[in-house]
Design goal:
Order of helices and strands: HHHHHHHHH
Oligomer: single chain
Number of domains: 2
Radius of gyration: 19 Å
CATH class of the largest domain: Mainly Alpha
Shape: globular
CATH superfamily of the largest domain: Hypothetical protein af1432
Bound molecules: fe (ii) ion
Structural class: mainly alpha
CATH topology of the largest domain: Hypothetical protein af1432
């Protein structure tokens, strides 16, 4: 009563249909390529990893968007499509190509207003922007911050340990590898600007720091003398 509730143009069913489209697109990208072309055994290069990363970015960007006053529908749909082309084209054009695929899908499969489609596609295109993020619209900033945050924390540490296994390294190297995750996380955190993203980054970095300390405390083979 008296409070205007903005109708979200994106229903749960529509979002789920878009998720299936992105999932299947990633699977098909991997299946259609020549064997051995890229290191698919690498934890970061599989369709499974990429889809899961996208789900993490949807959740994180939605949270940042709602707390920072950005349009959550634009942000979440942009997050869903942002890496759709990642397994198919080179890194330096994946954002642009992702925007093209999203535009095609949204224009053909949905009835969203063209202003909505434009905002989503420009956020996708902007997500590989390497300079100061405050130059960009709020929705693109939320997406970039979420993309950064997914590399920081326990998730990043677990992937690094998985990589060690593929490289036949032992757990005695684990603290050193987790330290690397921590250093990269500290570096990455310097790019985030919103208070919401900074707080999430701090929580995640703390977990990694603890994990590294616990490894050093428990594993005799780790040399902690500097
Ligand atoms: Fe990403």
């Amino acid at each position: 009563m008296g409070v205007e509730i903005r109708e979200s143009p994106v229903s749960e069913d529509e979002f789920a249909a878009m998720e299936r489209f992105v999932h299947d697109y990633l699977e098909a990208s991997v299946q259609s390529e020549d064997k051995g072309g890229r290191m698919r055994w690498y934890p970061w290069h599989s369709a499974d990893y990429r889809f899961n990363h996208i789900r993490n970015v949807i959740k994180l960007s939605g949270k940042i968007a709602s707390q920072e006053g950005a349009n959550t529908d634009v942000t979440r749909v942009a997050a869903l499509f942002h890496d759709i082309a990642k397994l198919e084209v080179d890194q330096d054009i994946h954002a642009e190509e992702g925007a093209r695929i999203a535009r095609e899908y949204l224009e053909i499969q949905t009835d969203y207003p063209s202003s909505f489609v434009e905002q989503v596609c420009s956020a996708i295109e902007d997500h590989s922007y390497q300079r100061e993020i405050t130059d960009l619209p709020l929705e693109a900033r939320c997406l970039i911050e979420a993309d950064i945050l997914d590399k920081i924390g326990a998730n990043g540490a677990a992937l690094m340990l998985l990589r060690m296994g593929y490289e036949s390294r032992t757990h005695m190297d684990s603290a050193e590898m987790v330290e690397r995750v921590l250093e990269r996380g500290i570096e990455a955190k310097k790019r985030v600007r919103s208070q919401t993203a900074k707080d999430i980054a701090d929580r995640r970095l703390k977990r990694v720091r603890w994990f590294k300390e616990w490894l050093e405390m428990e594993i005799a083979g780790i040399d902690t003398s500097e």
